[in-house]
Amino acid sequence: MNRITNNSMLFPGATLTLWICSTLLLTAQAATRHLETAETTALKAGLAKITLILDAPAPAPDTFTLSQPNQLIIDLPDTVLGAQQRYHRVDAAPVTGLTLAETDGRTRVVAALARSVRHKVRRDGDRIHILVTADIDAAGSIPAQAMTGARVTDTDFRRGEDDSGRIKLTLANLGQQARIERRDSRVIAVLPQTSLPQDLERRLDVLDFATPVQYVDISSRNDDTVVTVTPVSDAQYRHAAYQSDDELILELTPITPAEQEQAEAEVEEKEEPQFTGEEISLSFQKIDIRSVLQIIAEIADVNMVVADSIDGDITLQLDNVPWDQALNIILRTQGLGIRRIGNVMSVASLNEIASLERAQREADEAMRQRKPLRSEIIQINYANADEIAGLLRKGGKETALISERGQVSVDARTNSLLIYETQDRLQDIRRVINKLDIPIRQVQVEARIVVASRDFSRELGLNTGFSNPRDPGISGYIDNAGYTINIPTIGNATGQLTSTIISNTMSLDLALTAMESEKRGEIISSPHVITTDGQEAVIEQGQQVPYVTPGAANTPATTDFKDVVLNLTVTPHITPDEHVLMDMKLTQDNVNSFLQNGEPLIDTRSVKTQVLVDDGNTVVLGGIFQHEQRDTGTKIPLLGDIPLIGALFSSRIRDQKKLELLLFITPRILQESLYDSRPDNRTAMVGNAGKSIDIRRID
């Protein structure tokens, strides 16, 4: 002791230096927490809450108040100021502002107050809650529930349609998430920091509701609200909880006997292996494990190989136990495992078995690496060879079809793949290619462009406001001339475009034929196009309007053209249930006027929609109008030219027509089995409502 004291006296400077370094080190380690955010919330008149959020467990703050001016000072020791905003102007009476500052390893929060108040501090993990209020109870304390303002405002119990018992709690200013747990047969819900009015603290006896619930106890425990649900004796149920902004619903649903038996059977099937061996009885004390395994092998009449590393004694007492269950028990208790190779069981430690399996995998991989590589050319008939090659290469070392030793090359001229791989891999690759290289189904899109009078379109049902005569409550349908029309409407800034579905194309053909015979319209074009599933088809009809662009001093004038067309773009998708989903875009151009240089101004109207139709049904797009005005006059020669009275011997007729442009789009799925194999005359026979249409290739 004297020597230690003397040494300390000999080196007082060193001792002081060590003490200072230790103090600085401890201070640096302690001051690792940061004040991230300071928030102020107005709870009610004269009551506010200040919340300080840190990035580590909050320290015990030092608080005191000042007067002239009124301030609340909160000091956080060993805390660094991490908030960017140093001053907060708040409107949460009695708090009017917050100022944050850092000095000497501590952070100070200064709350400006409108008047002298009392405060209460509570720490909660990485948060510090300071309640500022003039409303302090007789004991000088503030209820912890006031720190969050969460409370229960109402309770209710209902019986569900499935005989479930439903407990509903209505909440205000919900704070933390409720904790739901099952203890024994009861279900307990805890609402942290939630107050419960005294008139709602009670027990509900709900046995008469015939649900799994017998009692519901709602009580207040410390600062929490606790709901305890006691079920009926021996009731089998499952529980669920749903929490929203202002409600907590706790539900207990009964489990039927059939559901209970099924659940128990599934659990037993998953957890317990099935043992079917002959029952045996074993009673030994400190017997060698190898001898026990030999006895089981002889009784079960199985081939068993026991590793040399297995030794030790075992004591067991088994009566009327299947031999495979007895073997399973011995293996588990001794940390052993079993491998079956044919009709031979190999027993060894789990580590040995894992090593053997790992060595086996390495040997198999080495064997695969030694297998010879073979080359094969695979012709791709329908797909793209580059895309197929990309799929074969895609994936990692374990999932790619082409191994690290293999190669795949593409011959774009013949659309073939040259593959260099082992025989096993080649078989897998051929199987995958056979699944992918299949013909894509095709769709014939038939379009009929019709210019018809407005009266004809009304008779056809191509305007809105109709109702189904079979059911007046269903609007948007009309039954006319044997076909059914669906009439959704698509608004457009330059007019109203309507889309319609017609299911009976035979009646439509008759209607169009009658239209032409009665001179109420004409079919101006009937293009057909065949496209594959998912590929875009374009139908376009129109003209090019010329205009002259003046030239410069040494440049002659040029004639340019602008397209004024009716464009229809259709992308068909064949659904698995033989319907056609079409993405359609219709664009109509019209010349409005001409500029001074002769360049035309073009008005464009367009509609983009998606429609699902049956195979062979017709979609009608309308709402594109054309106006025609014609003035004709007749008069009696000489008399009709007399001024003033000439009008008595002449007549003038002004004829105005309003025509509508209608597009009828009919998709038909082409059947692969009906294609003619001859390349010079491919035809497709398409069935539609009992008739066949011969669609020949147009060169």
Unreliable segments of 5+ consecutive residues: 1-31, 135-147, 462-498, 674-699
The main pleated sheet reads as: 9 strands, antiparallel
Note the beta-strand portion. over 45%
Query: Total number of helical segments?
Result: 10
Task: Tell me the overall shape.
Answer: extended
Average pLDDT for all residues: 76
In helices, the fraction of residues equals 10-25%
Distance between the termini: 116 Å
Radius of gyration: 45 Å
Number of strands: 44
Label the structural class. Answer: alpha+beta
Summarize the structure.
By secondary structure, this protein is an alpha+beta fold.
Can you put this structure into words, describing what you see?
With 699 residues, the chain is α+β, with helices and mostly antiparallel strands. The protein has ten helices and 44 strands.
Features:
single chain; 699 residues; alpha+beta; nine-stranded antiparallel sheet; five-stranded mixed sheet; 19% helix; 50% strand; disordered N terminus; disordered C terminus
